[in-house]
Amino acid sequence: MLSIARSCLATLLAGLLSFPGFAANEKSLGLVVQAQDAQIADSKVAIGTTVYSGDKVETDVGGALRLRMGATQLYLLSASSVTLAQRSEAVVAVVARGTVGFSSNGTDQFELEVPEGTIRAANGQPAYGQVMIVGPQEIVVSAYHGSLVLDNDGELHTIPEGKSFRVVMDPEPATAAPEMAPSQDNGNTTPTKRRRRRLAFFLLLGAGAGLASWAIWDVLSESSSSPK
């Protein structure tokens, strides 16, 4: 009887620990401050929803979403999707589709990850920028305030303030870049080689797209209690 009682108690405790209230507290990345036709996985989000590493956030056609994560704000425009992650000290938003932007104080270690590399504020300075996924090998990167850096496995490309570049990735990789990978015999890490992406940059002329995005950001930044 004692053995049966212990077994039942263990089963009960395991069940309780599966509920969020009893599980170990996971550190949140931030929260939703504005949302329209947006969801995390299959659940609709509302103002105040907390987001965590591993969450996939997305917007429907015509939707918009803005998150506050420390000193960084991340926004998704219509038909956009990102997956959030915590990597070492940096918060990363892996962009799958659509148009995604951020405002950063430059020191909060925030990055947008796209197939062409990672995008962050340049030189630890405040920046506001945006990336639009055009196709499997093409993006448009815009730096509206402050400069951005596109990091292609250590090969750094600066997007100056006020400029937009179309970036096209060659399906064939370019130069080799070092990477740490486990060895075959004892599990120790030994340097191996991987191939950097071959990127082509094309400056986009005209400020119409930038002004439109700035207007959208301005609207998203308004407080519902004290609109401009």
Strand content: over 45%
Q: Given the C-alpha coordinates, what overall shape results? A: globular
For the record, the count of structural domains works out to 1
What CATH first level would be assigned? Mainly Beta
Helix content: 10-25%
What's the mean pLDDT score? 79
CA-atom Rg in angstroms = 21 Å
How widely separated are the two ends? 70 Å
Query: What is the name of the CATH topology?
Result: Jelly Rolls
Secondary-structure element order, N to C: HEEEEEEEEEEEEEEEEEEH
Main β-sheet description: 16 strands, mixed
Describe the structure.
This protein has 228 residues and is mainly beta. It has helices at residues 2-17, 208-221, and strands at residues 30-40, 43-44, 50-51, 56-69, 72-76, 81-87, 90-97, 99-104, 110-114, 117-121, 127-135, 138-145, 148-152, 155-159, 164-170, 176-182, 189-195, 198-204. It has one domain (24-221): Jelly Rolls. The strands form two sheets. It has a 16-stranded mixed β-sheet that branches. The protein has a two-stranded antiparallel sheet with strand order 16-17. A hairpin with a 2-residue loop joins strand 4 (56-69) and strand 5 (72-76). Residues 4-24, 179-193 and 219-228 have low confidence and may be disordered.
